[in-house]
Amino acid sequence: MEAQQIKRTTAKSRGFYVKMKLLQQQNGKHGRPHEKSCFFRYYKWLLWLSLTLYFFSPYLLTTTTTTTTNDDDSKNDNKNNINPTFLSKTRVVSSSKSTFASRALIESTASDSRLQQPLHDQEGVLSLSKDLKIYVYELPPEYNADWLNNERCSNHLFASEVAIHRALLTSDVRTFDPYEADFFFVPVYVSCNFSTVNGFPAIGHARSLLSSAVQLISSDYPFWNRSLGSDHVFVASHDFGACFHTMENVAIADGIPGFLKRSIILQTFGVQGKHPCQDVENVLIPPYVSPESVRTTLERAPANGRRDIFAFFRGKMEVHPKNVSGRFYSKRVRTAIWRKYGGDRKFYLQRHRFAGYQSEIVRSVFCLCPLGWAPWSPRLVESVVLGCVPVIIADDIRLPFPEAVRWPEISLTVAERDVGKLGMILEHVAATNLTAIQKNLMDPFVRRALLFNNQIEQGDATWQVLSALAIKLNRSYIRSRDSTQ
Ligand SMILES: *[C@@H]1O[C@H](CO)[C@@H](O)[C@H](O)[C@H]1NC(C)=O
Ligand SMILES: *[C@@H]1O[C@H](CO)[C@@H](O)[C@H](O)[C@H]1NC(C)=O
Ligand SMILES: *[C@@H]1O[C@H](CO)[C@@H](O)[C@H](O)[C@H]1NC(C)=O
Ligand SMILES: *[C@@H]1O[C@H](CO)[C@@H](O)[C@H](O)[C@H]1NC(C)=O
Ligand SMILES: *[C@@H]1O[C@H](CO)[C@@H](O)[C@H](O)[C@H]1NC(C)=O
After folding, report:
1. Which residues have CB under 6 Å of ligand 3?
2. What is the pLDDT of residues 25-79, one digit of tens each?
3. Which CATH number is associated with domain 291-448?
4. What is the pTM of this model?
5. C-alpha of residue 288 to centroid of ligand 2, in Å
6. Per residue, what are the HEC states of 289-339?
């Protein structure tokens, strides 16, 4: 009966593929060894071939794999439409490649002491990531690809929902066999409905879009029902995570939609302690900053160049913040900064938007990162990657990837109530440990961890997410899976 339901998948060829897999599974343990012995002779040869290709031409490898597909719908850029007769061969190629690649990852990681250190405490992380397999759902374009018609969709503040999806599509942890997947990634872009009035992302439709995606995958595939979504991964990259609202009180009142409560949410929102909008299995991720924009800025002015601005902030600073249902923007912290330091020569404070603001960050010693409506801001990432010491003014903020990025060593934290003493605090640091902080900030490992690349790079933000997911994997489950193979 499951096969019947599977047949209803939207893409015909995928439906067929999944059905094939299902039949294979139903044949149980007899299917696999037979398949293995059949292709064992080819295996060595294919392993050799794929290693060669892997070394000498990643491009060729992709092309080779693609040419074995019998694919009349070539814009579906993947191997799901593989002609069934080539299925096993192709799977051997791709799995040997992924095994090799993760070994390579482990070896190079072990030989790089800088990388080894942050992961040292988490015994087994690396061997887990070797086994990590993620199935990426293919959803109709209205859930994701259509939104890319607006170029901003893939490079604005919330674009990690796009970047993580892209990185997974070409990554070694991706599996095309949902039955061997540890996690299921549901690629829905909810942040790209930009308001025609102010250009901000309107996320009012997020809940219904996600709910309809869950409806679709839970009726077309058996995996959602199997786990009630607990091995399914979503990105919620805006202000208050899976609560999908920019105002905290409304976000809390709305709460996390029931259908997401058992899933894993990759979210930028994080605070210490309990909060209704992080009361879900989650991985804290950095806000999206385009690696290209950073590269361009650093080509014009290197991070180790002259810094003639002592303290920098550009952004919304209301002189008289409005009382919005009992709350004030930035809890009036930005107002206090503006009032106290607006006329201070050492503070370069700007209230208007300026597209070239990264060139100002790279000229600054301290970059203020006060809360907005939510505690986090893109300044956290931009400061670090451009070598400006982030001054975090957001009580109780929880910061991304604390194992990889030792925030206390590369940033300053100033309590919201101490914002009036900011000048004194910064002067004191400048006279004492500024050089030490700046030195820590130059660590390339730290900067790499905060940027999402279109293709996963070792140690980058998506890599950190995968590492966090690997830790979440139930180890005994992994072990039992391995022992039955
Ligand atoms: C985009 O947001 C507007 C409100 O700002 C809403 O009316 C519209 O339905 C949304 N579009 C989609 C496709 O959800
Ligand atoms: C999953 O459960 C829902 C609700 O119980 C049901 O409508 C749907 O058909 C189920 N999906 C599968 C693939 O069995
Ligand atoms: C803010 O407005 C609310 C009503 O929306 C009111 O109860 C509260 O006293 C106001 N707070 C301040 C500090 O003005
Ligand atoms: C630098 O000094 C400040 C103020 O004394 C202190 O809060 C901070 O932890 C120090 N940072 C480092 C990395 O030493
Ligand atoms: C881990 O997996 C085992 C075997 O599948 C299961 O019995 C156990 O309850 C799981 N533990 C957790 C914390 O999910």
Report:
1. 323, 325-326
2. 444 334 333 444 444 444 455 555 454 444 444 333 333 332 222 222 222 333 3
3. 3.40.50
4. 0.74
5. 35
6. CCHHHHHHHHHHCCCCCCCCEEEEEECCCCCCCCEECCEEHHHHHHHHHHH
